[in-house]
C-alpha cells in the first residue's frame, strides 16, 4: 500500500486528504477503524517517542498523545498502591510492564489524555488492551498485537476503534519535507541520540547525578523531542508528570508544566485519595471533579447543589496552606527544557515543584544567573549543548 485516503484533514472542510509514501510502501497496517489526519500525526510522533524511550532505557514505553504533543509518556516500571489508585487501575489485577507504562502515561494528566492516541513500544498484550478498552481514546499504534489483545480492542467503539500496526523495521528517509502555504520546507531529520553522554557537562556545584536521575532526564529530553515548542517536561520515576507545550514564553511553559506536576502530586494527598464519590460516577466526571477540587475554583464542586451530584458527603476545602505543605514533600524531580533558560525565574518555579535535576542546552547570556539560582537550591544541572525545537 503506497497511499491511504483519509476522511478529511485537520478539519472536515479540508479535503481531499491522504497519507502516502514516495518510495516503497507505507509501513503501517490498519487493523481496525478508520484513522484520520490528526490520528496519524499523533501516531507517528508517538511511535518515534516510545521507540527512542525503549532504546534509551531498555524498558517498554508508552505515550498518550493529544494534538501532536504528548500528554504523558512513561516506561514500564511497577506501580505503587497509591499510583494504582490515582490512575484508576486498582481493579485491573496484575499488570504487565507495558500496561504499567500505559497506566503511567495515561494517568499522569488524565484531563489532557481524554480522547488520546496511544503509542506502544512493544507488542500490545491483553493486560494493556484491557486498560485501553475502558478509557476514552481515539486509537493505538504498536508493532503488533496478541490475538487476545486485538480481540479486546476490536470490541471498542462498536468495532470502529482505530488500531494500527507499525513496521518496526521501517527506516525513514534522512531528509523530511512539509508544505506550508504552498511552500515546501526541507530539513534533515532530528536523529539525535539521547544517552548518558548528553549529561556529561554538569555546570553546578552539585554534580551528583544519579543513575535514576539520568534515566528521568533521558525520558524528559526524548519526550521534548516530540513535543510542540516551546516545551518543558517534569519527570519522576520514569514518567513525565508535567508537560508544557507550545508556549511562546519559556517561563509560562515552566509554570504550565509545573502546575501539571503539582496536580499529579496533589492527587496523591489523603484529602484527594479519600474523596467520598457517589457510586457509579463516570471516570471522566471523577477526573473533572478532582481537577476542580485541587484547583482555585474548588467551590464549583463544593457548593450546595453541586457536591451532592458527586459526593456522598461534602468534602472539606483543601486549603492553599495544606496543598503547599503537601507539595513541600515532593522531591528528586527531573526537568528538561528544549531550549535554554533565559532567566533564573524558571529555576525558582521548578524548585517549587521539587526539581533537583535539570538538563537544558545552555547558551544564554544569563547562564551565570541560572547556574547561581540552581546552586542556591543545591540542584544538579547539565548543559547538553543541544536544542530540541519541534514544530
Q: What are the salient characteristics of this protein?
A:
Cytidine Deaminase, domain 2; 391 residues; 15 strands; alpha/beta; 14 helices; five-stranded mixed β-sheet; six-stranded mixed β-sheet; 3 domains
Report mean pLDDT, rounded to a whole number.
Answer: 95
What CATH architecture label of the largest domain applies?
3-Layer(aba) Sandwich
Largest sheet, strands/sense/barrel? 6 strands, mixed
Number of strands: 15
Structural class: alpha/beta
> What general outline do the C-alpha atoms trace?
globular
Strand order of the largest sheet: 3-8-7-6-4-5
User: pLDDT below 50 for ≥5 consecutive residues: which ranges?
Assistant: none
> Can you tell me the CATH class of the largest domain?
Alpha Beta
- Number of helical segments with 4 or more residues: 14
CATH superfamily placement of the largest domain: AICAR transformylase, duplication domain
Number of domains: 3
Strand content: 15-25%
Which range best describes the helical content: under 10%, 10-25%, 25-40%, 40-55%, 55-70% or over 70%? 25-40%
Order of helices and strands: EEEHEEHHHEHEHEEEHEEHHHHHEHEHE
Distance from first to last alpha carbon:
28 Å
CATH topology of the largest domain: Cytidine Deaminase, domain 2
In angstroms, what is the radius of gyration?
21 Å
Structure commentary:
This protein is an alpha/beta fold and 391 residues long. It has 3 domains: 3-171, 3-Layer(aba) Sandwich (Cytidine Deaminase, domain 2), CATH 3.40.140; 176-266 and 327-383, AICAR transformylase, duplication domain (Cytidine Deaminase, domain 2), CATH 3.40.140.20; 270-317, no CATH class. The protein is built from 14 helices and 15 strands. The strands form 4 sheets. A 6-stranded mixed beta sheet has the order 3-8-7-6-4-5. Strands 12-11-13-14-15 form a 5-stranded mixed beta sheet. It has a two-stranded antiparallel sheet with strand order 1-2. Helix 5 (126-133) links the parallel strand 6 (116-120) and strand 7. Helix 1 (37-57) packs antiparallel against helix 7 (211-225), helix 3 (97-107) packs parallel to helix 5 (126-133) and helix 8 (250-266) packs parallel to helix 13 (345-351). The longest helix has 21 residues, at 37-57.
Amino acid at each position: 500500500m503506497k497511499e491511504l485516503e483519509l476522511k478529511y484533514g485537520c478539519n472536515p472542510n479540508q479535503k481531499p486528504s491522504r497519507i502516502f509514501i514516495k518510495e516503497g510502501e507505507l509501513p503501517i497496517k490498519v487493523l481496525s477503524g478508520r484513522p484520520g489526519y490528526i490520528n496519524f500525526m499523533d501516531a507517528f510522533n508517538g511511535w518515534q517517542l516510545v521507540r527512542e524511550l525503549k532504546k534509551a532505557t531498555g524498558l517498554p514505553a508508552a505515550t498518550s498523545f493529544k494534538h501532536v504533543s504528548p500528554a504523558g509518556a512513561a516506561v514500564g516500571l511497577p506501580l505503587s498502591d497509591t499510583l494504582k489508585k490515582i490512575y484508576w487501575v486498582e481493579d485491573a489485577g496484575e499488570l504487565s510492564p507495558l500496561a504499567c507504562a500505559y497506566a503511567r502515561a495515561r494517568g499522569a494528566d488524565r484531563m489532557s489524555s481524554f480522547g488520546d492516541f496511544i503509542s506502544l513500544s512493544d507488542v500490545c498484550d491483553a493486560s494493556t488492551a484491557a486498560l485501553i478498552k475502558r478509557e476514552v481514546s481515539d486509537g493505538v499504534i504498536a508493532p503488533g498485537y496478541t490475538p487476545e489483545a486485538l480481540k479486546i480492542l476490536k470490541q471498542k467503539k462498536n468495532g470502529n476503534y482505530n488500531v494500527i500496526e507499525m513496521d518496526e523495521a521501517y527506516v525513514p528517509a534522512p531528509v523530511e519535507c512539509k508544505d506550508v502555504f504552498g511552500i515546501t520546507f526541507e530539513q534533515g531529520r532530528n536523529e539525535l541520540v539521547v544517552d548518558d553522554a548528553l549529561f556529561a557537562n554538569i555546570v553546578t556545584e552539585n554534580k551528583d547525578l544519579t543513575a535514576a536521575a539520568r534515566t528521568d532526564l533521558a525520558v524528559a529530553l526524548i519526550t521534548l523531542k516530540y513535543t510542540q515548542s516551546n516545551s518543558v517536561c517534569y519527570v519522576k520515576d520514569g514518567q513525565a508528570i508535567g508537560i508544557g507545550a507550545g508556549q511562546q514564553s519559556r517561563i509560562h511553559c515552566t509554570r504550565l508544566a509545573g502546575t501539571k506536576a503539582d496536580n499529579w502530586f496533589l492527587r496523591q494527598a489523603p484529602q484527594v485519595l479519600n474523596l467520598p464519590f457517589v457510586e457509579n460516577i463516570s471516570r471522566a466526571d471523577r477526573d473533572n471533579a478532582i481537577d476542580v477540587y485541587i484547583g482555585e475554583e474548588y467551590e464549583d464542586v463544593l457548593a450546595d447543589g453541586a457536591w451532592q451530584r458527586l459526593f456522598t458527603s461534602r468534602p472539606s476545602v483543601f486549603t492553599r496552606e495544606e496543598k503547599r505543605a503537601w507539595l513541600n514533600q515532593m522531591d528528586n524531580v527531573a526537568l528538561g527544557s528544549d531550549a535554554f533558560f533565559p532567566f533564573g525565574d524558571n529555576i525558582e518555579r521548578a524548585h517549587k515543584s521539587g526539581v533537583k535535576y535539570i538538563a537544558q542546552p545552555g547558551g544564554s547570556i544569563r547562564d551565570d544567573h541560572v547556574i547561581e539560582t540552581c546552586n542556591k537550591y543545591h540542584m544538579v544541572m547539565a548543559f547538553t549543548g543541544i536544542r530540541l525545537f519541534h514544530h
